[in-house]
């Protein structure tokens, strides 16, 4: 059996990315934190880890892989992420009724915030 243990994000500014992703996901670093690597884990204990690896790499668009973050209150989460340093990404092919907002972290790594609010009963 396989499970996702950690998602690794390469970065240039490890400390800045650590602060962003820890606050964005309410994760905490596993000690000891290395000068070029940090593993962030959920405070609640549930979910995959996010590891940050201080290995600069070329940014390619569109990215081959990205995170989908599910939010019960999408608007509030997008605003909170923007206050932490994330930016919205406009995409001309995004349908008007899309349930996602494309964003990027302070270093340009893209992710989507998905509206996962429970639907009201009809």
Automatic annotation (TrEMBL):
<dbReference type="InterPro" id="IPR029068">
    <property type="entry name" value="Glyas_Bleomycin-R_OHBP_Dase"/>
</dbReference>
<feature type="domain" description="VOC">
    <location>
        <begin position="3"/>
        <end position="116"/>
    </location>
</feature>
<dbReference type="InterPro" id="IPR041581">
    <property type="entry name" value="Glyoxalase_6"/>
</dbReference>
<dbReference type="Pfam" id="PF18029">
    <property type="entry name" value="Glyoxalase_6"/>
</dbReference>
<dbReference type="InterPro" id="IPR037523">
    <property type="entry name" value="VOC_core"/>
</dbReference>
<protein>
    <recommendedName>
        <fullName>VOC domain-containing protein</fullName>
    </recommendedName>
</protein>
């Amino acid at each position: 059996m396989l499970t996702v243990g950690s998602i690794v994000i390469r970065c240039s500014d490890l400390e800045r990315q650590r602060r962003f992703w820890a606050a964005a996901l309410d994760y905490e670093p596993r000690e000891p934190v290395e000068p070029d690597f940090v593993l962030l884990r959920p405070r609640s204990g549930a979910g995959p880890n996010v590891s940050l690896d201080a290995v600069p790499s070329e940014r390619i668009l569109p990215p081959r892989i990205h995170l989908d973050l599910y939010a019960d209150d999408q608007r509030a989460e997008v605003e909170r992420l923007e206050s932490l340093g994330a930016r919205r990404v406009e995409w001309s092919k995004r349908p008007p009724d899309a349930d996602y907002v494309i964003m990027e972290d302070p270093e340009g790594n893209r992710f989507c915030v998905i509206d996962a609010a429970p639907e009201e009963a009809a």
